[in-house]
């Protein structure tokens, strides 16, 4: 009887740690398992850089959606924002604009799309962000097809492709030529660091968490909740625009199906990474782990020649398990 | 001796109409420095409407408000906050996912310069909030503990600490003990008494006579939107106050 009680309290004590680090442990276990199963390939330079290249634009979308989820909202339109930004980029590139304009335009387009979401949610007083962003999921993709005629536009200059396709040469470190660092990997690190500082060490970041925790408390504290929400959705759009720029580099093309269903991957990465759908909970590091888990899972299963259908099943299972941990935490972690 | 203290808040002939409905009719109120005024009345007597007028959430249809003797026109709760009046809301208005200290400073977080950036000063948040909690004798494990881990009474204490953290002179509490377990009520009432000792004036709305008689210096009753009765606490009894609530003198 006493022993049982002790066990339970140990379990209770573990929950906050599981909550915080569980996802990193899962990530490390996956890496270890795949390394054991594919000792020659999985941790090779080539494969590791491949994983980072594959997750590069998804990681931007996931980071944007993460901030939205912290406010207890949702953004279903990130895939469409990325596609529209990509098409705008392609058209500007084909108009022979200087490269720095071509690079800035998708970010601006993404920012404006996100701002449109934020203004719609707050000014039109939509009952839930789901509805506004479901609407713009269709609107932005339709707009992208309208401006491009629904056909792919290919061929960008090296400057435009740099973020998605560039390589940082490491031969000066005595490494081989094939052992380069993808620019997109450096970009992920920089962007995630900036947003880690933003979410954890600035007042606006704190207010984003407060709005997710209790919007009435935020309002009573004099925080302009609508303004913060517009900022959050705008930043989410901006990150989708950066995603478009990376994708332009990788694919060397703007194409109608770009970012199709990418919003679901982004949401999945946030949920796996421990962001709570109830709002107010989750970390930037957790989202990164969530993106990595999805990327490594796909990569590892590809290496082992497992069908893409099994990948879908596994990712779905991981989402449910991750949310179940959140449910357990809510049951035990809060006093009633 | 209280009557010699300065009047910090005075409301004169406040009326509030919602369309054809009269919520308040020529209501008066005075609060002195360090005094606790108990406000009683039945549901619909106008207590909450009156408090919302005092905090600037509602604009009175007629009448005037004086803070420290100066007439003020409030256009939002921000205005009353700047004049030193804070309201502790019934739903507490705390973010459970944030630590105690960050709740106390929510919206007014101290920052420090880091290059060209203004970053949150977590050390200051912790130190200042723990010092403030100590001053109010509110005992928690640490200011870094999350609010959702606290009991109802502790949360009420944090909400009151929040309301008094920025040198407020008047605190309005709307049913501060309504949602609490009986053993926690005493702690909140102790807290009100220590606020009074610090010179903070408290207006408490409560249905519980025990609360009113434990902390108030004076009690006033509203009945159907008007001043019905008022007395020094020492010159009245529970039964008389209960009678006032029901409209009997």
Write structural notes for this entry.
The complex is a heterodimer of chains A (336) and B (249). With 336 residues, chain A is an all-alpha fold. Chain A has helices at residues 2-37, 45-70, 78-94, 99-123, 129-148, 158-165, 183-201, 203-213, 215-220, 225-251, 262-272, 284-303, 308-333, and strands at residues 153-154, 167-168, 181-182, 253-254. In chain A, the strands form two sheets. In chain A, strands 1-4 form a two-stranded antiparallel ribbon. In chain A, strands 2-3 form a two-stranded antiparallel ribbon. In chain A, helix 4 (99-123) packs antiparallel against helix 5 (129-148) and helix 8 (203-213) crosses helix 10 (225-251). Chain B is an alpha/beta fold and 249 residues long. Chain B folds into two domains: 1-84 and 168-249, Rossmann fold (3-Layer(aba) Sandwich), CATH 3.40.50; 94-167, no CATH class. Chain B is built from eight helices and twelve strands. Chain B has helices at 47-54, 77-82, 100-104, 122-135, 152-164, 182-197, 209-215, 238-245; strands spanning 7-18, 21-32, 36-40, 62-67, 70-72, 85-88, 111-114, 117-120, 170-174, 201-205, 218-223, 226-232. At the A-B interface, helix 8 and helix 9 of A face helix 2 and strand 8 of B.
């Amino acid at each position: 009887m006493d022993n049982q009680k002790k066990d339970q309290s140990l379990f209770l004590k573990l929950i906050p740690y599981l909550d915080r680090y569980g996802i990193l442990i899962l990530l490390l276990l996956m890496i270890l398992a795949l390394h054991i199963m594919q000792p020659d390939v999985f941790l090779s330079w080539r494969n590791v850089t491949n994983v980072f290249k594959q997750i590069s634009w998804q990681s931007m979308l996931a980071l944007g959606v993460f901030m939205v989820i912290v406010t207890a909202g949702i953004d279903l339109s990130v895939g469409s924002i990325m596609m529209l930004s990509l098409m705008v980029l392609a058209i500007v590139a084909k108009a022979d604009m200087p490269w720095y304009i071509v690079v800035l335009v998708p970010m601006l387009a993404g920012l404006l799309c996100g701002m449109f979401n934020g203004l719609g949610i707050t000014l039109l007083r939509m009952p839930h962000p789901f509805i506004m962003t479901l609407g713009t999921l269709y609107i932005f993709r339709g707009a992208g097809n309208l401006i491009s005629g629904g056909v792919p536009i290919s061929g960008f200059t090296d400057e435009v492709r740099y973020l998605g396709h560039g390589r940082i040469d490491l031969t000066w470190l005595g490494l081989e030529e094939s052992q380069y660092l993808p620019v997109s990997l450096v970009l992920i690190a920089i962007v995630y660091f900036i947003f880690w500082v933003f979410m954890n060490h600035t007042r606006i970041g704190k207010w984003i968490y407060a709005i997710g925790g209790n919007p009435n408390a935020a309002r009573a504290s004099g925080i302009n909740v609508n303004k913060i929400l517009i900022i959050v959705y705008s930043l989410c759009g901006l990150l989708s625009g950066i995603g478009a720029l990376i994708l332009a580099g990788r694919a060397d093309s703007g194409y109608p199906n770009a970012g199709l269903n990418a919003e679901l991957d982004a949401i999945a990465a946030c949920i796996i990474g421990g962001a709570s759908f109830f709002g107010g909970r989750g970390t930037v590091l957790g989202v990164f782990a969530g993106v990595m888990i999805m990327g490594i899972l796909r990569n590892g299963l590809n290496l082992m020649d497992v069908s893409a259908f099994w990948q879908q099943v596994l990712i779905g299972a991981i989402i449910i398990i991750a949310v179940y941990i959140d449910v357990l935490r809510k049951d035990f972690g809060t006093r009633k | 001796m209280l009557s010699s203290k300065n009047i910090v808040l005075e409301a004169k002939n406040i009326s509030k109409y919602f369309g054809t409905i009269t919520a308040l009719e020529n209501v008066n109120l005075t609060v002195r420095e360090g005094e606790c005024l108990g406000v009683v009345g039945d549901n619909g007597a106008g207590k909450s409407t009156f408090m919302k007028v005092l905090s600037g959430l509602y604009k009175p249809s007629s009448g005037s408000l004086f803070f420290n003797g100066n007439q003020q026109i409030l256009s939002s709760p921000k205005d009353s906050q700047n004049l030193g009046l804070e309201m502790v809301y019934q739903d507490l208005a705390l973010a459970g996912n944030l630590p105690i200290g960050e709740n106390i400073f929510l919206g007014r977080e101290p920052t420090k310069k880091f290059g060209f950036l203004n970053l949150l000063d977590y050390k200051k948040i912790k130190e200042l909030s723990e010092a403030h909690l100590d001053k109010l004798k509110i005992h928690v494990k640490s200011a870094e503990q999350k609010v959702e881990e606290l009991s109802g009474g502790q949360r009420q204490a944090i909400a009151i600490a929040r309301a008094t953290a920025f040198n407020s002179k008047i605190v309005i509490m709307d049913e501060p003990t309504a949602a609490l377990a009986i053993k926690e009520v005493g702690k909140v009432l102790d807290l009100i008494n220590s606020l009074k000792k610090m010179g903070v004036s408290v207006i408490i709305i409560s249905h519980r006579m025990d609360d009113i008689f434990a902390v108030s210096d004076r009690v006033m009753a509203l009945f159907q939107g008007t001043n019905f009765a008022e007395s020094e606490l020492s010159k009245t009894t529970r039964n008389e106050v209960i009678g006032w609530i029901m409209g009997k003198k």
